Amino acid sequence: MPGRVGINPHPLPASTTNNPSNHGHPTQNHVEHLLLNEYSMVSPPVHLASAAHREYIVLTLDDLFHGKEVHVQYTRWKQHGESEPKGMLISIPPNCPDGAAWLFPEAGHQLSNGKYQDMYFQVEVEQDNRGFRREGNNVRLLGPDGTSYAIEVDYCRTRASRGSTEIGGRGLPIYNAGGRGDLIFDWEIGFPPSL
Q: What is the pTM of this model?
């Protein structure tokens, strides 16, 4: 996944400018190896206009639920032509805020003044194409017509960890007849292995 070069105008959340600890344990499906090929192709002498470089890490809703480990690899160049391989591990915790960023001071290329660029890695949450939309800590369901629905599951009262919720008349239009079918959501509560 190539990163995008540039500085995002949105400010960094104050609590995420350093590497936060990961409270989950991402599965192998949620490990990504990010090669910064475009950034590595800068050849000396390096004339960089910015003291900081930003890359974007795109997360799915599945990544947000499980957390994700990103192994970053790139080549860093110095002004006199030497290069060195660089790598870092970014552990993204479950439910990481959209726009959160990790700062690695002076981890980038060497500038003409002898200092090194700071490296930022910022989270972007991609739009889900299955009908889910993230709203803070909540996930809202979207019907086939784009209408959003919220489903309340009262686990404390029912102790049900899975079930089905039906919303009448909100499904697909009935072929050659009036009205619409029902919108049915199957749900299951996933419990953490430990608290």
A: 0.62
* Token code pair at residue 38: 């475009």
Could you give the CA distance from residue 121 to residue 53 in angstroms, rounded to a whole number?
9
The answer to whether residues 91 and 114 touch, using CB atoms and an 8 Å cutoff, is: no
Question: What gap in Å lies between CA 5 and CA 3, rounded to an integer?
Answer: 6
- Which residues, 6 or more positions from 92, have their beta carbon under 8 angstroms from its beta carbon? 22, 26, 57, 59, 63, 67, 68, 69, 70, 123
Answer whether 7's CB lies under 8 Å from 77's CB.
no
- Phi, psi torsion values for 21, nearest 5 degrees: -75, 155
> Long-range contact list for 19-22, CB < 8 A, 24+ apart?
19/90, 19/91, 19/102, 20/91, 20/93, 21/91, 21/93, 22/67, 22/69, 22/91, 22/92, 22/93
Q: Which two tokens stand for residue 123?
A: 């989270």
- Give the model's confidence band at 138: pLDDT under 50 very low, under 70 low, under 90 confident, else very high: low
Q: Which two tokens stand for residue 148?
A: 């959003």
* 77-121 tens-digit pLDDT: 988 888 999 999 999 988 888 899 999 999 999 988 889 999 999
Report the distance separating Cα 37 and Cα 145, nearest Å: 41
| 128, two tokens | 């889900």
Q: Which residues pair with 103 in a beta bridge?
A: 120
